[in-house]
Structure formats: C-alpha cells, structure tokens
Amino acid sequence: MTTLEAITERHSRTLPDGWEWKKLSDVLDSFESGSRPPGGAVGVTSGVPSISAEQMTDRGIFSFDTMRYVPRDYYHEMKRGHVAPGDILIVKDGATTGKTCFVDDDFPFKEAVVNEHVFICRPNRELVEPRFLFYWLWSPPGQHAIRSTFQGAAIGGINQRFVDAVEVPVAPPAEQKRIAAILNEQIAAVDKARAAAQDRLVSTKVLLDAYLRETFTTLAHAKTVSLGDIAARDITYGIVQSGNHCPDGIPTVRGGDIKGFRIDVKQLKRVDANISAHYTRTILQGDEVLLVIRGFPGNVALVGDDLVGCNVAREIAVIAVPSTWSRSYVQYAIASPTVQQHIMDKTKGAAQQGINLSDVAELRIPKVGIADQRQLVKRVSTAVQATELATTAAQEALDAAEALPAVLLRRAIAGEL
Questions:
Q1: Structure confidence at residue 5 (pLDDT)
Q2: pLDDT mean over 358-370
Q3: CA-CA distance, 21 to 128, in Å (whole number)?
Q4: How many Å apart are CA 352 and CA 247, to the nearest integer?
C-alpha cells in the first residue's frame, strides 16, 4: 500500500512521531460561507470583490480575470463571509466541489467576501499553521477526504458537517512551520518551472505562425481561389446529435480531437451506426481536410487512412480536396495567419463561437501549380516537425511541473521532507 493510500484510510497507519489526527473542525477558529444580494452579483460592476469558484484555480491560487462584486452597503451588512489573510477557501458545491485556495499576505484586496457557494476555513493559529493546513487540504489525500463527504446528485456538494468528517494530520508546531516553509519554496520553484514550460509552448506556436506568415507572404501576388471552388464535394458539417458513446459504433472526430495538424484517434467517440447512417455525406473517404468551425474555429488536420469510414461531428467542416491539389498545401494555407484572421473575423456567437459553412466556402488561398505546392509543403513540413518536437518537450516539462506538487505534498505528509 502506498503512503497516499495509507493516510487516506482513517488511522490505517501511524503518522510520524509527534503527529496526530484531528478533526478539521477542531483546528479551526471559524467556519462559514458568504452570500450575495437578491438577484446575485451579475451586473454589479463596482463595490467589494465577491469570490466564487470562478476566481479559484486548481493550483490553490486565485485568478481575477473575471471579477464579481457586491455593493458596499451590502458588504457592511454581511455578518459572515469576510475574507482575511490566512483563510482557506473551499468550493462547497457544483462540479468543482472541494477546490481549495489559500489567502496569503499578497492577496490583492483589503476587503473581499465569498458568496454562498464557498466556505471559509479560518485556522486556529495556536493549533495549526495556516499554510500547513492548506497544503494538506489541497493535497491529493486532502481532496479525497473532502470529496468523500460529497452528497447529492444533480447539483451536489459538501455541507457544514464535512469539517467534522474530515480528519487532518497535525504535526508539532515547529515541524508544521518547517514543512510549510519548505513547501512554500518548492511550490514557488514549481510555479516558475510551469510558467517557463507554458512560455515555451506559446513560443513554439508563435514561431510556427511566423514561419507560415513568411512562407505565404511569398505568394502575396498570386491569384487566389475559394475553398468552395477547390472542393471536390460540397463542404458540409457532420453529426448534429451523436447520442451516447456506443462501444461498437462508428468512430467520430470532434473539434477537441484536432490540434497541431493532428487528429487524436485514441479516444474518438463512437456513434451508433444508425445515427451515423443519416450523415453519409461526411463519412470520411481519405481525401479530406478537416476544419474546426465550432468551439475553437481554425484548427485543421488531414484525414489519414486510419480514419476512412469514420464520421465527424457538427463542429467539423469536411473539405474534400481533388487530386489536382495537394491536401497538405490546402491544410497549411488554411493555417496561415492571413486565413486564420479571416476565420476570426467571420466567427460569431458568444456561448460557443463558430463560423458558418458559407463563410468557410468563401475563404481564399493562393492558387499555385502543384509543383510549387509540393515544394512549399516540403519546407513547411520540416518546420512543423521541428515545432512538434519542441512542443512535445515543452509539454513534457509542463506535465512534470504539474505532477510535482502532489509528490512534494505526499512526502511532506509522510514526514519525508
């Protein structure tokens, strides 16, 4: 049995010497949630910040890209839900139940509250170091303990009794401070590594975009032709309502399956053959370029031989390319910054953005001879392969950074730091 499995089972193993299990409620000074005025906080553009799950991240820190407020008069009337440094905030219901964040001394607001969907756990500093307690609740076993008290089905969550059900390991005060200090330093280093890996991912995309722009700029004086005029068959989209996953059904490409000129075939949804049969127009034949037109419009990839006979979902436009054109050329031309900008300009919608098929058919790419297309494809493919290698390395570094906090926390709880 691993350390993680052992400590998530109540008292299944003894803790390090001098440690003890305590109920979460026994190490808190206070435990409460907040509220919002009648009608909620939507439309309130100033006042006192109101913290919800929307501002809380899985990394234990806050993101204030989207702000919500309560009027100042309402804030002064609130008897509960005021945020203070050292508080631990936990989402109490919905899809992100248990998400946990820490209010440190760098929290940007002197005045803030939580809404009714967030609990404030205020540690008793005489019994527990706030950061130490946060790291436990944020750790995999802590999250497991919190979510094991989840109740309800449609919109379930945790209630106020969860603090009596969740147990936390409490180390001697000096050990708590030592562990918290080590974790503060190491998590900060992890955050830097994560940011560097994310920057590398962005940089590889920027470099490829620049190369595509430079390459297709050489064709700026060439005549252009619309995708509708090129297409060997009418450009259309796929299955509108695909139903539940059918293990023996037809593999179906969805928008999220296309990224970086590739189609992830490992987890394709399978659609009932009877449903797919109503969309024979998009049964893949191997001569197509697929363009995402809903959700993240602009992602593009070629259909490989392994996808012949499969289908696509409604967020995919199927562009059949005749043999007189290079499919790879058409793919790269669509991915070029100029055409991507046209796609963005034609994208509509708020909840789920998309581009209409008529606008897809009107997208124009440079018209050059097949020999020139193949030469361009050869050059771009080399750049794409280099980008893929760099992207893979950056993603592996990011994955390693994302996994490291859990390892550090498990070692801390096991007394191995």
A1: 41
A2: 95
A3: 12
A4: 28
H/E/C letters for each residue in 83-142?
CCCCCEEEECECCCCCCEEECCCCCCCCCCEECCCEEEEEECCCCCCHHHHHHHHHCHHH
The ranges assigned to domains in the chain are 3-171, 173-203+370-417, 223-367
Look over the chain and give the mean of its residue pLDDT values, rounded to a whole number: 89
> What is the token pair recorded at 331?
């793919």
How far, in whole angstroms, is CA 101 from its chain's centroid? Answer: 17
Mean pLDDT of 76-89: 95
Q: Topology of domain 223-367, per CATH?
A: Adenine-n6-DNA-methyltransferase TaqI; Chain A, domain 2 (3.90.220)
Spell out the residues 6+ positions from residue 51 whose beta carbon is closer than 8 angstroms to its own.
34, 62, 68, 83, 89, 112, 113, 114, 115, 118
Q: How high is the pLDDT of residue 198?
A: 83
CA dihedral 5, 8, 11, 14 (to 10 degrees): 60
Q: Which residues of 201-211 are buried (b: 16+ CB within 10 A; e: fewer)?
A: beebeeebeeb
pTM beyond cutoff 0.90: no
pLDDT category of residue 8 using cuts at 50, 70 and 90: very low
Determine the Cα–Cα distance for residues 398 and 408; give it in Å rounded to an integer. 16
Q: Containing H/E element for 306? A: none
On whether the CB atoms of residues 259 and 348 are closer than 8 A, the answer is: no
pLDDT digits (tens, 9 = 90+) for 151-194: 876 678 999 999 999 999 999 999 999 989 988 888 888 888 88
**Which of 3.40.190.170, 3.90.220.20, 3.30.70.100, 3.40.50.720 is the CATH number of 3-171?**
3.90.220.20
Calpha distance 118→40 (Å, rounded): 14
DSSP string, 309-363: T-EEBTTEEEEE--TTS-HHHHHHHHHSHHHHHHHHHH-B-SSS-B--HHHHHH-
Of residues 402 and 80, the one with the higher pLDDT is: 80
Whether 111 shows a pLDDT value over 90: the answer reads: yes
Same fold, 3-171 and 223-367: yes
